[in-house]
């Protein structure tokens, strides 16, 4: 017979066995659950990565659409800027065509004289002088270089306008950070919008010497264009009287600053905290998408690790301030 001590020992073993069994079962369940969670997490990570890719694609499309909208706003002014030099280039070409016909007439008469060799030399000289006087040859020869110079200047002006416009078509093709001159960018934008602003706003510039910054130039140009167009619209919204737009740049340590200021209608205080929100706009339907400042915030703050700030006194002044790092090494 087993003693009491033996039964106690066996009982303890059974209890330990049962406890061990339940512990093993619990660990198996935990392991199984962990495997399941890992699978779910992997699936969620893939879905998240796909969702982020879609978001980036949508952001790129929104940026492109806003860029095209800005170019569309400039279309009338660009046509005017190109038509002006094109008109005098065309006029000069018509005059040059008449001049060449005249010179052709003179050349044909000269060839005829050489073939006939009739008459005295004195008669030929008198006839040549009379023909030159009637055709106003002296004026033609004096005017042709001026016409060619004006024509070349007009073609160069058209070429400059086209080159400036190319700055606003680089958002998709230029995605890397390169050296960017913000003063040059501002000058280009002001030239492109000159026709639109001529009768509505005077422009004051205070562009200090600043270093080139590391930036996606096409994106910064899009922000600057948006701020200048907004300033012009604010002035128009205030009334028919011409307004003033002031642009400034300067350097402070490792940062370059740029301001765009106007004396238009201003921004109500209750809207200052909302203007960078997507689709927020106070413009009439059809005159604004509400994406311009939101995309500008995305470009300056998230893409370029800078700041975009606004100050406004309704009815008096609005100032947007950009603060951009010279280098992106620290980010």
UniProtKB/TrEMBL annotation:
Spans through the membrane: 6-24
SUPFAM superfamilies according to UniProt: ATPase domain of HSP90 chaperone/DNA topoisomerase II/histidine kinase, Homodimeric domain of signal transducing histidine kinase
MF terms (GO), sorted A to Z: phosphorelay sensor kinase activity
UniProt entry keywords in alphabetical sequence: Coiled coil, Kinase, Membrane, Phosphoprotein, Transferase, Transmembrane, Transmembrane helix, Two-component regulatory system
EC number: 2.7.13.3
Domain annotation Histidine kinase: ranges: 77-328
Keyword DNA repair assigned: no
Segments forming a coiled coil: 27-54
Catalysed reaction equations from the record: ATP + protein L-histidine = ADP + protein N-phospho-L-histidine
Classification via Pfam families: HATPase_c
Xref: PANTHER family: HISTIDINE KINASE, SENSOR HISTIDINE KINASE
Protein name, per record: histidine kinase
